[in-house]
Structures are given as structure tokens and as C-alpha cells.
Design a protein that fits this description.
The protein is mainly alpha-helical. The protein contains four helices and no strands.
């Protein structure tokens, strides 16, 4: 399970104070995980998350348009 792998990484990072160990844990994780997990993990660790491609308001307008609602 991919989410379980990330949770295990996070726990292992939390349990060590060694910067070298943290780097090794992250490197191993990134080598072992497929995309898009690597991208998401990197974004989360950097404090960035991908922007939403559209807002909830836009989604509502498009849905109403497709359903031919006012």
C-alpha cells in the first residue's frame, strides 16, 4: 500500500535526529515509489502542494451548464 509506505517513511523520519539518516530514508523512499507518489511526497516535504486546476465555483457552473440548469 502506497499510503502505508509514506506513513512508514514519515514515522521513521520522526524517530531519528540524524540528518544523514533522514536523507537516506527519503532517498530510498523516492527510489522505491512510483509516480505520482514521488511527486506528492516531494511537494509535501517542500511545503508545496499542486494548485487545484479549477475552483468549486467553476465546477458548479460547468455541471449546471452540462445539465442545462439555470
Amino acid at each position: 500500500n502506497r499510503m502505508k509506505a509514506f506513513a512508514q517513511l514519515y514515522q521513521a523520519l520522526d524517530e531519528t535526529t540524524s540528518a544523514n539518516a533522514k536523507v537516506q530514508l527519503i532517498a530510498t523512499y523516492l527510489q522505491e515509489q512510483p509516480e505520482p507518489e514521488r511527486t506528492w511526497a516531494t511537494a509535501l516535504f517542500l511545503g508545496n502542494t499542486p494548485k487545484k486546476p479549477f475552483t468549486a465555483t467553476q465546477l458548479k457552473l460547468w455541471a449546471c451548464e452540462k445539465a442545462q440548469l439555470p
